[in-house]
Amino acid sequence: MSCSTSNWRSLAAFAAMSCCLSIEATAQNAPLSAQDSDPKRMGWMQWFPPPADKVITQPDSVYFSFPRLRWSVCHLREFLPTEEISRGIGAPTPLRYPSPSQFAELRAQIDALTFMPQKSDEPMTWEESLYANYTDGMLILHKGEVVYERYFGCLEEDGKHAIMSMTKSFTGLLAEIMVVEGTLDDTALVRDIIPEIGDSAFATATVREVMDMTTGVQYSEDYSDPNADIWLYSRAASPLPKPEGYEGPDGYWEYLQQVPPDGNHGDAFHYKTINSDMLGWIISRIAGKSVTELASERLWRRLGVEQDAYQTVDGKGVPFAGGGITAGLRDLGRLGQLMLDKGQAHGDRLFPAEVVDNISAGGDRAKFGTGFPTVGAGSYTSQWWVFHNAHGAYAARGVHGQTIYVDPTAEMVLVRLASFPQAQNGLIDPTSLPAYQAVAEFLMARDE
Predict the structure, then answer these.
(1) If pLDDT is split at 50, 70 and 90, which confidence band does 226 have?
(2) Distance (Å, rounded) from C-alpha 378 to C-alpha 367?
(3) How far apart are alpha carbons 409 and 238 in whole angstroms?
(4) Residue 151 has pLDDT above 70, yes or no
(5) For residue 429, what is the DSSP state?
(6) What is the 3-state composition of the chain as percent helix, strand, coil, each rounded to the nearest 5?
(7) Alpha-carbon span 374 to 370, nearest angstrom
(8) Residue 320, CB half-sphere, CA atoms under 13 Å: how many?
């Protein structure tokens, strides 16, 4: 199946974009290396005008296929309509850095760290792992201080990068804040908050089941199947005019109103993006504000971030709560630090510590199943991944290598933005999760 057979597929939500990339990359026996696929080296969109074979557009180009992906992740606003997550007009709160000489020494030491990838007997250095995973940006904070920062590919200091499904963790965090503050009842049924959900399978799910993705709803993300639900969802969400004869749902929320059941609510964790958009609808209805407004008011304006973020929207202006945010590397580090500090930032409490306590404690591990072997015996709650490892780490995660990784034991926050050729993070985890642990142990050893 070609992901470029029609305009709406080119404008699909992030999951559908991932399809295009997965199929094309899988077809290649040996995708270009991170160095060889660097957008500057490839010459994408360079010169005035760029050569015809170096132009990336939509809808007549599969702009999220590899290696175009490596340019597009920093330029999403040029392809899709978006809504701003405003930082306001105040001055940003500066991040703390060591002296230039200490910073350079730390980079050299971290780059030289070695670790053993999962199921491998060949050691790898930290720096090698960055290229192996097509890293575009890496930021590490330790005890609130930036100890490592590098940019690759399309990303610069003042640039922004698509964060894919890390968007879900923004949505889940906002929902958990509302639950702890008492404005959202997580035991309420969806139909009691969104009456127009009608006979959709979501109607009888609780808010908590939506937050933890334990709903029994039908939704297939089998990208190789042209009749899979992901394609129906993508067609509904496309901001382009619907093709002649189209009779399906128009927009994210209309799609959610016709989702059939599949299994029982509460039985097991099933990673399905439509839960995130259902949650976005719920919190927007309760708050009377869009998820972009909520993210601005509760997080971005108060964190002292450097840059506005933005979020893609469907044809009716509804933000994509499951994967539409683009943001700056340092600002994502600020969000991770906010989680590590349990809701406090520069002396101000943005939300109760109980919010982070609830998230970091994790969900029901018995419901997590075995579908994510590289994560291990983890869990999922409030749209965050919890590893239940010795350090109590948890993370926001997005396809192609996006992560905010919070390690409370090491007092470390790590943010990686990437453009890995395939969408499956299970291909990246074996050389990422052990690398994160190695850095955490290195930083802890420095404190001794």
Answers:
(1) confident
(2) 10
(3) 43
(4) yes
(5) G
(6) 40, 15, 45
(7) 10
(8) 33
Are 270 and 332 a contacting pair, CB within 8 Å?
no
Q: Which helix (H) or strand (E) holds 447?
A: helix 433-447
C-alpha to C-alpha distances, 120 to 55, 114, 123, nearest whole angstrom: 40, 13, 8
- The mean per-residue pLDDT over the stretch 375-385 comes to 95
164 phi, psi to nearest 5 deg = 50, -130
Contact (CB, 8 A) for 66 and 37 = yes
Decide: 348 and 357 in contact? Cβ < 8 Å: no
| Amino acid making up residue 188 | A
Q: Is 385 exposed, middle or buried (0-12, 13-18, 19+ CB in 10 A)?
A: buried
Checking 430-434 for CB contacts under 8 A at 24+ apart, the result is 430/117, 430/118, 430/119, 430/120, 430/374, 431/117, 431/118, 431/124, 431/129, 431/132, 431/133, 432/129, 432/133, 432/401, 432/403, 433/118, 433/374, 433/387, 434/115, 434/116, 434/117, 434/118
- CA-to-CA distance for 25 and 71, rounded, in angstroms? 16
For CA atoms 380, 161, 84, 65, the dihedral sign is negative
* C-alpha span between 74 and 29 (Å, rounded): 26
Query: What Cα–Cα distance (Å) separates residue 175 from each residue in 266, 327, 399, 406?
Result: 18, 20, 22, 19
Please state at what angle helix 433-447 crosses helix 100-112, rounded to 10 degrees: 130
Helices and strands, number each (H, E), in the chain: 17, 15
Query: In the predicted model, is pLDDT for residue 27 greater than 70?
Result: no
User: Where exactly are the structural domains of the chain?
Assistant: 7-80
